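Translate sequence into structure tokens.
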Amino acid sequence: MTNINNSPPEFFAKNGRKNRQKRAVILLSGGIDSSTCLAIARERGFELYALTVDYNQRHRVELEAAKRIAKTFNVARHEVIELNLRQFGGSALTADIDVPKNVDQSDIGDEIPITYVPSRNIIMLTLAVSWAETVGAQHIFIGVNAVDYSGYPDCRPEFITAFQLAVNRGTKAGVEGYGFNIEAPLIKLNKAEIIRLGIDLGVDFSLTHSCYDPVVGRTACGQCESCLLRRKGFSDAGLVDPIR
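Result follows.
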């Protein structure tokens, strides 16, 4: 049972005793999945708090996409946190390592690829929980997917379940009885289903970005795993991708 007497001061300052369950933090990268999650949260009536992490990724143009999407959805707040994971490296997205191109689509997901950023979703979800606890949000949305994805271990249902258990045992909110729900509404959908759902909910996919290695003019390369998954998704959905 929710104990509203333990709500953070900032929550009461703006909302009085309004149901705190109607506020959500959404991890927004600027891609198809996170943008669709934002639309789902809006459809469910949440007040939207979008969180984008600038981890000095190779494809930093996605940060501009996130800003466009957040503006389109008229979110209550959009925060961009700077966190330089390039200091650690270990990934083609955070180090001088070539992004794999033209991988056979039947092989995508068989092994953890070099584009895996160590602990990225753990880090981002932890930041989201910290902000959620501050602003009085119980719901945190993340666009992870375990069907059409690149084989990242932190995109699986068992990870989401374990993370939710951990944060509800290790935060003031969790201990005092108004803990967090880690929402992963796309986790069992394929990319085509996600795209159709996003369109139904009003996502303008021309504003999004997916490519890991964009070329001059910020055009998607069309050959990295993320591009291949995106192209397959639109093709399977019977739609034309609106980006270059």
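Note: Residues 91 and 114 are 5 Å apart (CA to CA).
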